[in-house]
Design goal:
Blueprint (H helix, E strand, L loop, with lengths): L1 E6 L7 H9 L4 E8 L6 E9 L1 H11 L3 E2 L2 E2 L1 E4 L1 E2 L5 E2 L6
Antiparallel strand pairs: 1-3, 1-6, 2-3, 4-5, 7-8
């Protein structure tokens, strides 16, 4: 199983819309969109878990593409030293 970081999501994105987008490239096991813990508003990024081969296909196909007017950033999530995950190589 591979966990993908999905950044620059429109704030209108839902688990269902992200699942539909990624399911064109394989079986989506889990979608987790991140909300601000204080306001509850979307933060514009999330994670998608897929089988490794499906995740590689989805990453190649979707990184840099337009989704509801926003250019997506899709890469493999990197595990943080505190046990969480961070986005790609820079880990902003």
């Amino acid at each position: 199983m591979t966990k993908l970081y999905v950044g620059n999501l429109p704030f209108s994105a839902t688990d269902e819309s992200v699942r539909a987008l990624f399911s064109n490239h394989g079986t989506v096991e889990k979608v987790s969109l991140i909300n601000d813990r204080d306001t509850g508003r979307p933060r514009g990024f999330g994670f998608v878990e897929m089988a490794s081969a499906d995740a590689a296909r989805a990453m190649a196909a979707l990184n840099g593409t337009d989704f509801e007017g926003r250019t997506l950033r899709v890469n493999e999530a990197q595990e943080r030293s505190d046990g969480g995950f961070r986005s790609g190589p820079r880990g902003r």
